[in-house]
Amino acid sequence: MAVLVPHRFEDLLRRMYAEHATRGAIYDLEAREMWHGASPGMDLSVVDHGARASTGVGPAAGPHAQLAQNILLSWLGGSRVIELKTVQILDQLEIPRPCIDVQNVGFNVEWSQELLLEESLHEYVHGWYMVHAAADLLGMQQDARQTLLDVSVGYSLDGIRSDAVRRWLDRLRHARPLLEAAKAGLPKELRARVDHLEPAEEIYDCVTLSTFHGCPADEIERIVTHLFEVHDVHVIVKMNPTLLGYETVDGILRGRLGYDDLEAVKHAFDEDLRFEQAVAMMGRLEQVAAKKGRALGAKFTNTLVVKNHKSFFPGDQKQMYLSGQPLHVLAVQAAAKFAEATGGRYQLSFSAGIDRHNFPDAIACGLVPVTTCTDLLRPGGYARLPKYLKELEERMKLAGAASVDAFVHAIAGARGEAWATPREAALANLVAYSKTVLADPRYASEKNRKIPRRIGSHLALFDCINCDKCVQVCPNDANFSVDVGAGSFTAPRLVVRGGEVEVVPGEPYVVKKERQFANYADFCNDCGNCDVFCPEEGGPYKIKPRFFAGKDTFEKDRHDGFYVERTPDERLVMVGRVDGVQHELALDDRRGRATFSDGVITCELGLADHAILGKTLGAPVDAESEGHALLLWRYHAMRLLLEGTLAGHNPVSARWSQNRSRVGLDR
Ligand code: SF4
Ligand code: SF4
Questions:
Q1: Which of 461, 462, 465, 512 is the best mutation target for the ligand 2 pocket, counting ligand atoms within 8 Å of the beta carbon and taking the most?
Q2: What is the pLDDT of residue 213?
Q3: 46 and 352 in contact (C-beta within 8 Å)?
Q4: Is the pLDDT confidence value at 661 over 70?
Q5: Is 367 inside a domain boundary?
Q6: pLDDT value at position 665?
Q7: Are residues 495 and 382 in the same domain?
Q8: What is the count of structural domains for the chain?
Q9: Which of 372, 479, 511, 528 is most buried, by CB atoms within 10 Å?
Q10: Protein residue closest via CA to atom 4 of ligand 1
């Protein structure tokens, strides 16, 4: 199973500073792809349960809000309300892989955090710190910095009341010890760079509750009461689209939108919270919230559980969760129905098929925050976020509005309506939008059938069409590019014959392109998304060179891969499993030599011309050794990767590049 291994805080920071200093980018997001604040005179800020955020957009609790670099990248794109990936008591889940299919509309079979609770805690603290460090590094204006983190918890009363989750919530809420420990663990030069930063120690004061399909109504109510009374937070209840009832959902999904192949799972509707129950429950919980001086809100919506009629996910997955365009229509209907029934008195947050086109619509409906996931999994990735805010600005300017409240009024005004408060205008906008969105062809099946194009070729370790999509679509920034010294290299084989090592000429090893692509396996959870968008066959995360943080994770994995380590005598070496055979490469710049070994044959080569300077048999010769071959194309592959990786900005160099003179890379 793919296990995510977070970076050390110092590696996260080191990479950010180095990458920005060298080329103005941060975690592969170019400066032009970041959001640098609203245009002069425009105010995109929203108020979220009494606190102001510079924008109303953010990642939904999901793959873009799990690792520290996810939080940072979301923020760099303009997210200012970041809903952290749902935590729960069961923190050692087996998630089926692949787990994300956004070929067109969007399906998944993943759910809560894949890290241990303790790891999530540190990732969220590191992400929070990174956001502040990035704001400082970029010289971000104060009015563009206001950022809120929302915690998302699931899924049962017992789990949320458990000591582990209770303590987790407390430690993140009052995070001074964690923030200080993070800073104290930094090397001196990095500590000096963040010493003046003052990230708020109360990292969150709002919790979104996520429950499973079928969670009884009284349990949801008791969890929310527990969150108010024990944790003293604002609470948002995430609603399911099943609130609309099976007939309505099916009528929209298949009847209206034409997704004939999709079948909602009927029993989920029978078991889930009913609409009337939800309205009544919220009324009772409002009183609990009022007693605590806290706010109660609702989120529209969770994904819709549908039958798995495809072959993308493992065969034992009988159902899957629908997101994207069709869910947008359903979630808007559910939100509008609920808002009308409750007189628009609850703050509603939103997540369902949000993209740059409908983000301004959602903002005009008073939805706060408006979160996104499926769209960010498409080419462009986090760089799609600033376009949401650009589109909002354009629509605001068209409407003659310079603030979100003015925009809400202006949209209602365009229908000839004048409302006393933004909340009333927002409710009217939401109801109006729920009607127009039903008839909007961009959400219909016909417009959402296309799948990403394949070109017929198959990926190999090196060389591909260099489209860059695998880097963009990975939520964890696990794929990265590496500049290598492309060329044609003499690549003989060293073969054991009669107890000696013979040099046998081989085909030249050809690497055509300077720019190659690699994967950092410890950030990769095998979600499959880069395979969906790669135009070549095979899956970048499986075929491209895979790097591990170290021996531990490398040895737990069965497939080919590499790691860099420091030997007791302070040399950096690269260990690599190529075609299942383990090799070790050490470069010695002072002597101008490389040592390359597979444990049976060890070879010394000149670094300048790659001439063979020596060859030895490392093990006693026996019958099995006869015919054994050390293939020197693997030497070239590992050498190019080691040099290229450490010279660039990526998860490997974040840890080791400062040692690169030891492997001769500063030649
Ligand atoms: S590298 Fe590919 S499979 Fe791995 S997490 Fe990223 S998108 Fe998913
Ligand atoms: S591996 Fe695939 S997605 Fe990545 S750059 Fe190459 S062709 Fe594009």
A1: 465
A2: 78
A3: no
A4: no
A5: yes
A6: 43
A7: no
A8: 2
A9: 372
A10: 524
476-525 confidence digits (pLDDT tens): 999 999 999 899 999 999 999 988 999 999 899 999 999 999 999 999 99
Asked if residue 76 and residue 187 are part of one domain, the reply reads yes
Task: Examine residue 183 and state whether it is found in any structural domain, yes or no.
Answer: yes
- The end-to-end CA distance of the chain, in Å, is 40
Domain boundary among 382, 413, 445: 445
Phi-psi region of 265 (alpha: psi -120 to 50; beta: other; left: phi over 0): beta
Same-domain status, 511 and 435: no
Over residues 59-78, the pLDDT tens digits come to 999 999 999 999 999 999 99
Peptide bond into 98 cis (omega under 30): yes
Max alpha carbon distance in the chain (Å)?
A: 95
User: What 8-state DSSP symbol labels residue 177?
Assistant: H
The answer to whether residue 457 is domain-embedded is no
Is residue 188 domain-shared with residue 228, that is, in the same domain?
A: yes
Cβ of 463 closer than 6 Å to ligand 2, yes or no, is no
Same domain, 427 and 353: yes
Name residues whose C-beta falls within 8 Å of residue 163's C-beta, 6 or more positions apart in sequence: none
Task: Identify which of 480, 514, 532, 536 to mutate to test ligand 2's pocket (most ligand atoms within 8 A of the CB).
Answer: 536
Pick the last residue of a domain from 406, 429, 445.
445
Nearest ligand by distance to the CA of 458: 2
**CA–centroid distance, residue 559 to ligand 1 (Å):** 16
Which ligand lies nearest the alpha carbon of 543? 2
Q: Residues 320-372: pLDDT tens digits?
A: 999 999 999 999 999 999 999 999 999 999 999 999 999 999 999 999 999 99
Report the run of H or E that residue 640 belongs to, with start and end. Answer: helix 632-647
Averaged pLDDT for residues 145-166: 95
User: Whats the size of the chain, residue-wise?
Assistant: 667
> What pLDDT score does 664 carry?
43
Q: What is the CATH number of the domain that holds 202?
A: 3.20.20.70
Which band of pLDDT confidence, cut at 50, 70 and 90, is reported for residue 271? confident
Question: For residues 82 and 65, is the Cβ–Cβ distance under 8 A?
Answer: yes
Inside any domain, residue 181: yes
388 and 536 in a common domain: no
Q: Show the tokens assigned to 181.
A: 């420990």
State which amino acid sits at residue 216: P
520 and 385: one domain?
Answer: no
Residues 484 and 433 in one domain: no
> Is there an atom of ligand 1 within 6 Å of 125 CB?
no
Look at ligand 1, atom 5, and give the residue with the nearest C-alpha. 524
